[in-house]
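Fold in tokens:
===
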Amino acid sequence: MDPQLEDTFLEQDDDMELGLIQLEESDVAEYLRQNPNFFKKHADIMSDVVAPERWTGDGVVDLQRVMLDRNSSELDELRNCAQEVIETSRSNMSTQTRTHASVLAAASAKNFAHLVQIIDRDWPFLLDVDIVSIGFQPSHIPDLRLISENVRQLPTGEVDRLIGIDQDICLYSEILDDGTLFGPSAGLVRSAAVARIRPSLASPIGIMALGSRGDVFNPRQGSELIGFLVRVLEILIHRELADIE
């Protein structure tokens, strides 16, 4: 401790218990007078110090003080914005890495059944969600490969109902699923991303659905990576179903 500070602050009465300190405002003021560089050395505490106004009295506004307070507030807002940008960037990088890993896993599929298995078992872990499912509306050309416990059978018109006629992706912060999308796991899902799988000559219109029990998805989010993921999946499905087994 500074010897001068100690001499100033440790004056005790004879009847005072050892270790107790009596401080007066005059003691603090005297110490600061004798140590004019104190706040220069301890600039971090200045934000907690209330500075005096230049003028006092009714009807007088200290414009300099107002501007300083405004600048301080703007700096705090800038710091908060910068922190949000950093956190968002980190989250986006993580999501991008997970999406790329999922695409690579799907590209390794040997056939349609293997692709469905990767979507059902691997994608939830890779994408950090609770469940991923795909489903299709009835096809004009029935394909037995689409009849599977891991492929949802959707009613006609269900894709447009869930996503919208002119939309390819819909994000739900709250979704109530009767099992049409997520089967037995429907009760676990709170938020979801639902994306359109466009049809081809060999495959009907369908849906890719990502479900989470947490607040992972909401309509204000960007959906570029989900769009990329479903387009790659769409290409793989069209390719696999076009091959006659």
Q: What stands out?
A: The chain has two domains: 3-49, 83-242. The chain is about 45% helix and 10% strand. The radius of gyration is 32 Å. The longest strand covers residues 191-197.
